[in-house]
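Lab notebook, design round three. We kept the backbone fixed and only want residue identities now. Task for the bench partner: fill in a sequence for the structure below.
Input structure tokens:
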């Protein structure tokens, strides 16, 4: 089971697939049912919906000059 948070490298977030088992380290965990990706001006946001219900969301801030 992979633990996800804002410090998880972007490459590891990109490598996750439906069926992988994940946790946020705070009590939310389960098998990934779907993955949504959103990007904005200064962030990337990953939302992993879990088969058991609930979701884990990771927001990565993109450094700007």
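Proposed sequence:
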């Amino acid at each position: 089971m992979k633990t996800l948070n804002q410090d998880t490298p972007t490459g590891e977030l990109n490598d996750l697939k439906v069926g992988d088992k994940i946790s946020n380290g705070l009590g939310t965990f389960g098998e990934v049912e779907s993955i949504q990706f959103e990007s904005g001006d200064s962030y990337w946001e990953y939302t992993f919906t879990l088969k058991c219900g609930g979701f884990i969301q990771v927001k990565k801030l993109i450094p700007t000059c």
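Keep this in mind before ordering anything: Residues 2-61 form one domain.
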